[in-house]
């Protein structure tokens, strides 16, 4: 079940990252060709073979510009993706002074593995979730929500942070950021082609009705088909990267913390409740749990919590308490306990924590027994 430090997985992620970048350029060229084919069909009255050749000539002419544009896209995303994510989520970086509890847990985990401590950020939302972002040691950051801080105890928080550190260590975070860049680039070029078709479709229909035996209609269909294929491929690439890495990150967390029960408990508390308001799908794919579902799990980016818990029980010897009742989890969470709590702690127990043992009164008997006094 140990995954942290699986060098074969890390090397595989590096190879996949390179292949993804190569695939990005290929998909961009496919989109440029599709756009050129649609444009030629709208402006030239010719047979299909002629239109295909004209579109190929256009691609050769436009290839340098498409290459430069794609490189610029990658550079901008490389340096600014974190700023864009923070702008969407409203996450704020915090220090040890502001959140000593969370910061100390993260730092201790990093020290135990000789890792550079990533930046720590907090997103103000009641949804319990967390995600890691970045492309290198200077950029890596882990963002947790205020809902996660309220619902999870220290052991569970440690497990979630260990999960995200494993994603960083295994290269999953870098690979997912590249996949998001691909999706953004493909969506951008796809929209250009779609707008080209939309704004010229009326004139094209009127001209095509006057043509006899031309290949314009078929050329447009081929162009649209290429556009759809490129977009679907960019989507499937992201799906292919998501599921296995979650199992490995869960395993890496257990190896770090030696506490499979805490990882299971954290997953149960997050299960189905981690929807981040206003977050794009690409961001939700980076989270500990993505509650957004596809068609019968076919397009889900994460394994179900049920399957992840089953793996932890089977391979790590954890114990599953079962799904938590929605009613109990939906109650407003109490604010985080201040450090200056009274000698007996808060008056109410934390979520899902066992009730405290009865306390003896001022005149407690000398031998109250293991469970405290029985009372009069």
Mean pLDDT: 77
Number of E-type strands: 4
* Helical residue percent band: 55-70%
Describe the main β-sheet briefly.
4 strands, mixed
How many separate domains? 1
| Secondary-structure class | mainly alpha
Strand order of the largest sheet: 1-2-4-3
- Count helical runs: 11
Give the distance, in angstroms, between the N- and C-terminal Cα atoms: 51 Å
The gross shape turns out to be elongated
Uncertain runs with pLDDT below 50, 5 residues or more? Answer: 1-6, 202-206, 208-213, 327-376
Residue share in β-strands: under 5%
Rg is 27 Å
Order of helical and strand elements? HHEHEEEHHHHHHHH
Short characterization:
The chain has helices at residues 7-43, 48-89, 100-113, 146-151, 154-169, 172-208, 216-257, 260-270, 281-284, 305-316, 326-330; strands at 92-93, 119-123, 130-133, 141-145. The protein has 376 residues and is mainly alpha-helical. It has one domain (1-327).
């Amino acid at each position: 079940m140990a995954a942290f430090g699986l060098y074969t997985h890390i090397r595989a992620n590096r190879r996949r990252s390179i292949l993804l970048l190569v695939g990005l350029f290929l998909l961009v060229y496919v989109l440029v060709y599709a756009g050129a084919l649609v444009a030629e069909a709208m402006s030239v009255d010719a047979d299909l073979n002629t239109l295909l050749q004209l579109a190929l000539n256009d691609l050769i002419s436009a290839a340098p510009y498409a290459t430069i544009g794609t490189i610029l896209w990658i550079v901008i995303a490389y340096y600014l993706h974190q700023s864009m994510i923070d702008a969407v989520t409203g996450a704020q970086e915090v220090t040890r002074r502001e959140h000593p509890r969370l910061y100390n847990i993260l730092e201790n985990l990093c020290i135990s593995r000789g890792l550079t401590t990533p930046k720590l950020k907090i997103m103000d939302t009641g949804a319990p979730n967390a995600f890691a972002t970045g492309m290198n040691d200077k950029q890596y950051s882990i963002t947790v929500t205020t809902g996660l801080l309220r619902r999870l105890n220290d052991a569970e928080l440690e497990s979630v942070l260990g999960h995200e550190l494993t994603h960083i260590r295994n290269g999953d975070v870098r690979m997912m950021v590249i996949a998001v860049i691909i999706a953004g680039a493909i969506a951008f070029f796809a929209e250009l082609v779609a707008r080209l078709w939309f704004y010229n479709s009326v004139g094209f229909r009127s001209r095509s009705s006057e043509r006899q035996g031309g290949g314009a209609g078929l050329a447009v269909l081929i162009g649209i088909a290429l556009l759809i294929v490129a977009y679907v491929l960019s989507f499937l690439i992201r799906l292919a990267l998501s599921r296995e890495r979650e199992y490995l990150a869960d395993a890496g967390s257990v190896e770090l913390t030696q506490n499979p029960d805490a990882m299971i408990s954290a997953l149960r508390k997050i299960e189905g409740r981690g929807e981040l308001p206003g977050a794009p799908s690409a961001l939700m794919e980076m989270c500990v749990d993505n509650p957004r579902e596809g068609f019968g799990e076919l397009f889900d980016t994460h394994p179900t919590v049920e399957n992840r818990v089953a793996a932890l029980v089977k391979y790590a010897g954890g114990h599953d308490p079962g799904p938590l009742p929605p009613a109990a989890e939906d109650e407003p969470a109490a604010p985080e306990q201040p450090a200056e709590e009274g000698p007996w702690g808060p008056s109410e127990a934390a979520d899902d924590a066992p009730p405290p043992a009865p306390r003896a009164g001022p005149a407690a008997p000398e031998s109250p027994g293991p469970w405290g006094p029985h009372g009069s």
